């Protein structure tokens, strides 16, 4: 619990005067410059890796009924090379940082007590008609209080999270197949033509591709919570609970594995 509290203390309080990118930069900076925080992040990474290993084993053994196998269209990669193991190791270690930033973002935009929130972060602007509004209150919030959990902030956001994630991942995948880029990054992923090791094969990609794919979850979370810019107010954002955010990762990880 002390570890969680220390890591939470590194996350800046949300402010309408600071961009999301700035907050993420400040968060990472505070962790990497403090010895205790680096140790906490290392412990978190170990916990996440062990959880992924457990998830991988569960996913691999869950199917109990024999179903029609997907036809294999290429040679199975029987043995990993040194390069494969290096990429797998780097990517697994990266998951700790990703989980910290992902839930750190949700904590950074958490729903706070109204009185405290307006005392410290509100900025009233005149609308020209004698009325005022609060800039900080646009968009949704991260829900951490168990009493505030609901279907609306836990299950309802999931389709939007997956749609936005898949939209940007499709663009990323298209970009990685561009001829001038493919051989440097995405080609490594395709030398395994018949994946059979669940999560182990899923993370056997170039670290740059893994980084962009994982942090695409943070982008999706941000757009669902805070809204889509330049959309004319079409999507203003919605509340997302920590349970909903965890389900987004868990379900996506299980399907990918």
Describe the structure.
The radius of gyration is 21 Å and the shape is globular. The chain contains eleven helices and four strands, in the order αααααβββαααααβα. It is mostly helical and 257 residues long. About 9% of the residues have low confidence.
SS elements, strand count: 4
The whole-number mean of residue pLDDT values reads 76
Number of alpha- plus pi-helical segments: 11
**Radius of gyration, in angstroms, nearest whole number:** 21 Å
Percent of residues in helices comes to 55-70%
What form results from the Cα inertia axes?
globular
What structural category characterises the helix and strand content? mainly alpha
Termini Cα gap: 30 Å
Query: Any low-confidence stretches, pLDDT <50, length ≥5?
Result: 114-137
Main beta sheet: strand number and arrangement? 2 strands, antiparallel
Going across the biggest sheet, name each strand in turn: 1-2
Helix and strand arrangement:
Layout: H1 2-9, H2 20-32, H3 35-61, H4 82-108, H5 114-121, E1 124-126, E2 132-134, E3 142-143, H6 151-154, H7 157-176, H8 179-182, H9 199-202, H10 207-226, E4 240-241, H11 242-256
Parallel strand pairs: 3-4
Antiparallel strand pairs: 1-2
Helix pairs in contact: 1-3, 2-4, 3-4, 4-10, 7-10, 7-11
Keywords:
257 residues; mainly alpha; two-stranded antiparallel ribbon; two-stranded parallel sheet; globular
Quick structural overview:
The chain is mostly helical. Helices cover 58% and strands 4% of the residues.
């Amino acid at each position: 619990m002390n570890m969680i509290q220390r890591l939470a203390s590194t996350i800046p309080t949300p402010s309408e005067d600071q961009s999301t990118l700035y907050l993420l930069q400040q968060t990472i900076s505070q962790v990497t410059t403090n010895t205790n925080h680096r140790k906490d992040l290392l412990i978190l990474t170990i916990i996440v890796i062990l959880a992924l290993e457990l998830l991988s084993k569960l996913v691999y053994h869950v199917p109990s009924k024999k179903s029609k196998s997907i036809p294999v269209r290429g040679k199975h990669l029987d043995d990993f090379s040194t390069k494969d193991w290096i990429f797998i190791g780097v990517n697994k270690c990266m998951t700790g940082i990703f989980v910290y930033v992902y839930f750190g973002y949700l904590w950074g935009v958490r729903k706070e007590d109204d009185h405290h929130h307006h005392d410290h972060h509100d900025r009233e602007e005149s609308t020209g008609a004698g009325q005022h509004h609060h800039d900080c209150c646009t968009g949704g919030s991260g829900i951490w209080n168990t009493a505030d959990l609901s279907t609306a902030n836990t299950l309802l956001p999931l389709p939007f999270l997956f749609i936005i994630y898949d939209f940007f991942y499709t663009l990323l995948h298209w970009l990685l197949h561009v001829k001038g880029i493919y051989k440097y990054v995405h080609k490594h992923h395709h030398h395994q033509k018949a994946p059979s090791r669940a999560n182990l094969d899923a993370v056997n990609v170039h670290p740059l591709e893994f980084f962009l794919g994982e942090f695409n979850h943070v982008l999706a979370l941000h757009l669902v919570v805070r809204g889509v810019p330049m959309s004319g107010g079409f999507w203003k954002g919605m509340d997302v609970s920590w349970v909903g955010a965890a389900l987004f990762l868990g379900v996506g990880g299980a399907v990918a594995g």
